[in-house]
Amino acid sequence: MAYRPTWQGHLRLSLVTCPVALYTATDSGGDVHFNLINPKTNNRIKMITTDPDTGPIERSELVKGYEVSKGEYILLTQDEINSVKLESTKTIDIERFVPADEIDRVYWDNPYYLAPDGKLAQEAFAVIREAMERSGQIALGRVVMSTRERLLALEPRGKGILAYTLRTDAEVRKEDEVFGPISDKAPDKAMIAIAEKIIEQQEGPFDPSQFVDRYEEALKELIKAKQKGHKVEKVAEPEDTNVVDLMEALRASLGGKAGAAQGKGASKPAAKSGKTPAKSAASKPKARKAG
């Protein structure tokens, strides 16, 4: 299946430029999708765009509006929106190179694949990609996507480049707002020692193929049962896992085989597909030196 690019333009490193295309690296996920149905007729509901004063209106007649005050909008046509053009609308200009561990993982957003767009672009693309790989650093550039200019983190992956959109400072909530109330009291050393042994029992390689959406699988079973006319049985609520005696729970976990079994369950190593940002990024927040 041929993938359609999300964006097409140029990649530029100083005076070296080549045509490139950006492709989404992930699927939306999930096989179970629901529609709204009228149970009396079994018909799928249609969402009709409606003006509260004049009634239904065709989508083709609508324009976008920005609310400047309550009920007051500045109207913009698509042509007017398209008239706003930055250099990054059509060019990813590499502005800076930074060590991967300088970008906190909280800033990493969505992954994309960046590839040369056409045979004539391959030589220049290969030169830029190889130079990036030898530097061992992350390249930073910008691109306009969906009416937003996004910061991009670029790193070599296979024969191409992996591009991650990065969140801005304004998009990331301050951790102290959530972590602030957590006590500074040091935990019991004996409990930590037991917890560390439990972690050792559960160690294993990361194989994403072993992780399936169990909730979606259960939904599929529910749908199959109803399709066959079976009565849906009520499932017991999960047991309350609130821990009363923490030390006793730790000791019981260490003595049990559940942890060890889970660790061995991931014995098949995952295929190596290159360095991931999450693995190389620092565990502690650091100041981002993005341009």
TrEMBL record:
Q: Where is this region: Disordered?
A: 256-291
A Pfam family of the record is Ku
Q: Where is the composition biased (Low complexity)?
A: 256-284
**Keyword vocabulary terms for this entry:** DNA damage, DNA recombination, DNA repair, DNA-binding
Q: Which domain of life is it from?
A: Bacteria
Boundaries of every Ku domain copy: 54-182
Annotated GO MF terms = double-stranded DNA binding
GO biological process assignments: DNA recombination; double-strand break repair via nonhomologous end joining
Q: Which CDD domains match?
A: KU_like
Asked whether the UniProt record includes Cytoplasm among its keywords, one would answer no
Repeat: is it a keyword of this entry? Answer: no
Q: Which family does it belong to?
A: Belongs to the prokaryotic Ku family.
Q: How does it assemble?
A: Homodimer. Interacts with LigD.
Q: What is this protein called?
A: Non-homologous end joining protein Ku
**Where does this protein come from, organism-wise?**
Caulobacter sp. 602-2
